[in-house]
């Protein structure tokens, strides 16, 4: 067995400590990147959900202002022909003809 001088041992120890510190910094950076990656994945899922909802709202809006066979076959409160909507009568009040006056209410005098 070869004897080492104390100075050589302390140099080796210093190198080991430096290597350990370098690895510790590496793992800190690695974990930070992993956390950021996880955060970005979660945000992506949130944004995809919001995007889906906005697309559905936009489709409803565009369907409401468009006239096509598909749109006309569905219930649409904006679609009125001959002063009537295509909604069931329980869902919509009757549309008054253009220029018609609202019905007058008669007040009873006591």
From TrEMBL:
Gene behind the chain: LOC123521366
UniProt protein name: Dynein regulatory complex subunit 2-like
Species of provenance: Echinops telfairi
Top-rank lineage group of the source organism: Eukaryota
